[in-house]
Amino acid sequence: MFTKVIFKNFTAFDSLDIQFSPGINVFIGENGTGKTHILKVLYSSADITVARSMSWAHKMVRVFLPANERIGRLVKRGVGARSGYVEVSRFASGKEMSLRQNLTTRKESADNVDKPKYMQVWLENPLTSVFIPVKEMLANAPGFKSLYESRMIHFEEVYADIISKALLPPPLGPADGFRRKIARILRKAIDGSVTVENEQFYLKNENGNLEFTLLAEGFRKLGLLWTLVQNGVLANGSVLFWDEPEANLNPKLTATLIEVLLELQRSGVQIFLSTHNELVAKWIDLLSNPEDKKQIKYHVLYRDEENNRRIRINSFDRYDDVSPNPLEEAYVKVINKAIESKMGGLGR
Length: 348
Fold this sequence. Notes:
Blueprint: E1 2-10, E2 13-19, E3 24-29, H1 35-47, H2 56-64, E4 83-92, E5 95-104, H3 119-123, E6 129-132, H4 144-150, H5 157-166, H6 177-190, E7 193-197, E8 200-205, E9 208-211, H7 217-230, E10 239-243, H8 254-266, E11 270-275, H9 278-287, H10 290-293, E12 296-304, E13 310-316, H11 326-342
Parallel strand pairs: 3-11, 3-12, 6-10, 10-11
Antiparallel strand pairs: 1-2, 1-4, 4-5, 7-8, 8-9, 12-13
Helix pairs in contact: 1-2, 6-7, 6-8, 8-9
């Protein structure tokens, strides 16, 4: 379970310190305020504990994909040589542990950066995680994994990772109550279940199998969630990172999506979401029970106009307290414009 992250001169951030909830963490902010970067840093630090084939620095390079794989480009831009770092903390084996990666613009290759302290302890405590990117990838699964592993193709590694994790077979034995409950909710929403043959994903129902390439992308995203629960990737103690879950999802299905996410956090999954959609944040607030609300935090990233537009963060336990709130501001603007249009300009 992640507890906090600290950034210093990293990508868009001058200085940022974020404390996390053990349940659901919702990141809100205008474009360019670094929401996805936070998710990617956390995911890369978690994934190396399971896929132990590379260092944290190498994983960040593959996840962020800076030009020519120059890790120094992750340092916030400025005049002259600069340095920065990112430090991630989590709770495991009854104690809090931290991992800090120092970076400098002088270092071009991940091979040349200093190895983080306490790396061995970090790796000795595996943390299963999954990052769902904005673009749905299961429709592109056939052959993608082998292509990515054998050729230099310009895809962030989160795209290859999500396919690999979706292709994992289910665990032995019958499905537990949690998996059966999630299956019932999602089966109703997508009118079927998900099956896979030769890396090709299908929606299976009474009419047969419909390949994902012919399926609406919103249904594919819910199908991916169904798959990750049924194959045991998302289970007690795991972490889910989801970048804009509302993308290509019909608003009518947003409540279903949030219902599943709340069930996941009740079952011990820590969740990190970035969103530009008021419905996502509001449904989390409306569907969560009093115990859920104790496990939810809303983090709003914004530019401080009085301090060189540096990115700041405010964190709240209640959505109604979020300030500034770009989601609500945009919604109110639309409502006001609609009222103005209906009234023919009266009251201006």
